[in-house]
Amino acid sequence: MTNVFIVGGSGKVARHLARQLSTRGHKARSLHRDVKQADELEALGAIPVYGDLLKLETAELAQLMTDCDVVVFSAGAGGKGGAQMTNAIDGDGLELAVAAAMAAGIRRFVLVSAFPEAGRGKAVSETFENYMAVKKRADAHLAATDLDWVILRPGTLLDTPGTGNVRAGLAIPYGGIPRADVAAALVEIIEHSGLNRIIIELTQGDTPVGSAVQQLARA
Ligand SMILES: NC(=O)c1ccc[n+]([C@@H]2O[C@H](COP(=O)([O-])OP(=O)(O)OC[C@H]3O[C@@H](n4cnc5c(N)ncnc54)[C@H](OP(=O)(O)O)[C@@H]3O)[C@@H](O)[C@H]2O)c1
Fold this sequence. Notes:
By secondary structure, this protein is an alpha/beta fold. Helix content is about 40%, strand content about 25%.
């Protein structure tokens, strides 16, 4: 059984992740910033952990992470609050979570990032351009640590039902992917504890998610 601390625990990917972790016999501790979310998280099999990334100090977040084996960062401002909030959550929030994991002695850190080609060929807003830059800054920050990190870069997230099949690789063509399948890939990554210091691109595809992650772990 793996204890997984999920930053952004009330998010859409994170909710799928909490449910799937529980089904596989693991335990999610899901950080959420609205007390009203606690019951729903509990119903998914998670332990709700109340806290706001904008208010927590490193030591306080480290305390909340105590006894966890892995941190998954799936938080994001979601475009709300403009560049300032994206910088604060997707950027500074990630750096806070990394510092807290280190302070808590947790070595394994999985970041849900973004596919670099998202938006290519489209006229994107300044907010989106900033979002992509902040996601890259977060990747670079985590990759520069000596933690056992995995950076997962899913394509455009979809709310269609999960298929159980994906395409995963070091460099693959851009595409979309159901959030449930992103969560399934995260579960597999968590269970392959030897899979570290790797950036994985992820879209929908034809390979069962377990095999796709196993192939990367073997390589
Ligand atoms: N949309 C896409 O196509 C796409 C593609 C690739 C990657 N991604 C990234 O994938 C990740 C997961 O996506 P998703 O759709 O699951 O996102 P989501 O549903 O928007 O979840 C993000 C979570 O972050 C939480 N959060 C925001 N501010 C916070 C704060 N101050 N303190 C604590 N938590 C806070 C939100 O809390 P509340 O529930 O309270 O709002 C929300 O639950 C995000 O990082 C996103 O940027 C997105």
